[in-house]
Amino acid sequence: MFILSLFFYYNPNISKMAPASTTDSDSYSSSTTQPTEMSTMEYYDMKGEIMVIPQSPHHGGTRRRDSDTDSDKDLVITSLTESLQIHKEILERLNTEKEVFIADLRKERDEEQHSIQKEKEEAQSALEAQLDQYRRLETAYSSLVKELEAKKEEYKRMESSFYAHVKSIRPTDDDLSTIQYEITHLANQMNNFCMGLKSKMDRSGGSEYILERWPMTRAYFLQSSQQPSSDNSNKPKPSSEEDDNTTTGTSTIEQPRLETWIITMFTEKLVTEALTKDIFDQPIHIGVSVNETFKQLNTWIDERNTDWASRLRQQVSALVVRQAGEKEQAAIDQSLHSLVDRLLDELCHIYPRVKDGPQQRKKLEAICARAAKLNLAMKGQDIRVFCGSIEEGVALFDSTTMKPMTKCEPEGTVVFVVSPPFIALDPKDEDHGFVIPAKVYCTLNTPPSIISATTALSSSLLPSQQQPLSSPSIVSEK
């Protein structure tokens, strides 16, 4: 049945097969009585096409119909057999192609699975290698962290030991940055102190004191007032009586007076020179009994070993701060007290009421105490921190180590040094250190009185002793 179904499926026209006549089966039995006609019968070949076989009208009867029926049956059987054979071959070919396709599909699937498995194994091996590397790196990281922590602890111990060592040889905990700040603060404090004395100023007495203490002041600041004017040239000359009064000191001629800012500038110069001489230029400290002895010893050691000289300076300064002793400390305090008294006495010539009340004395004591503390901090550094020296009337203005005072040009010859430069110099490293510029008063023109005095002095000297009047800026350690 299955084969027949396939036959009819692939040959749908087989259902169109019909008998040669549309009459009933009884018509065959009465063929003799009916007129003889050419009859036909449709057959189907193996391709499903209709094949018409003509039949003779003379062929009739039962035998002919039986033989035709047998022939038809044989033809149908043959056709079915051939169709079955064809379909069998088709099925076999389809089955073969199916098996080949399945085999190819299985092969591709196996190859794909093999490739996937290989990639999986490679990825697994790469993952294992990365995991091993990660474990090694993690182990190395842990060891490095432990080593770093150990080094940090060691660094802390070394730092603590270093600071303890530095603290043991330094008189204070200051470094170059704090020293630089303290120098600037001290300069501002002195400037504020001098500016605050303006209300107590005696211009006449102050001018007389300044002109007497610094004679060069007259040439630079009173030159214009001493030149005769055209109005005064027509005035009558004083009589002999007036000359006598002038000689005896009873003249009413007004004494020269300096301007207020000039007196304030020289007041700051006076205080700064006292602090520089009595505190900053001391070999160790103000009032210490071994200052001169240490100076000689330090000079002798410095000529042979600079590092030893610096270490000795630090240790002696620390000894003065920590273990000065009652006698030495009393001498230091007495020296500071005497310095304050001396400054007040000198300031009384300019400010007569400076001793009225304790306010000005307390300000001076604070300035001197700050300067003394700053001096010990400077002496306790690894490198030399000192006050530079600028030769007045010789040095030329240098913006790297000087800054001009108000109302003067930043060029020319330095005629007055109001405050010296503070220099921290490391011979081994040029970038290590600082320079706080000096406050100077400069001028471009040398007064005629100075030129004539210098010419007279030069003519009295031997040629080998003569020096040029102007030279580059001279900044050196005192």
From TrEMBL:
Biased composition annotated in UniProt, kind: Low complexity: 223-237
Keyword vocabulary terms for this entry: Coiled coil
Residues forming coiled coils: 77-161
Region (Disordered): 223-253
Keyword Coiled coil included in the entry's annotation: yes
Protein name: Uncharacterized protein
Originating organism: Phascolomyces articulosus
